[in-house]
Prior knowledge:
Elements: E1 7-12, E2 15-20, E3 24-25, H1 27-44, E4 49-53, E5 59-60
Parallel strand pairs: 2-4, 3-5
Antiparallel strand pairs: 1-2
Amino acid sequence: MSNELQITREKEGDILILEIQESRISEGPVIDALSREFEAAIENGNCKKILLDLHQVELMS
């Protein structure tokens, strides 16, 4: 597993879609990366909803 969490961002209308592209993740990197994404979405104010796509995640610890 890489040291940096891979998250893709996509916007559909007023929905921000965040897709975690790692099969195995631990809480530290996930929390940090998601916090940054959430803060950016809130600061921009152009997203009313955030969808978190975890379909590639097999293991969270």
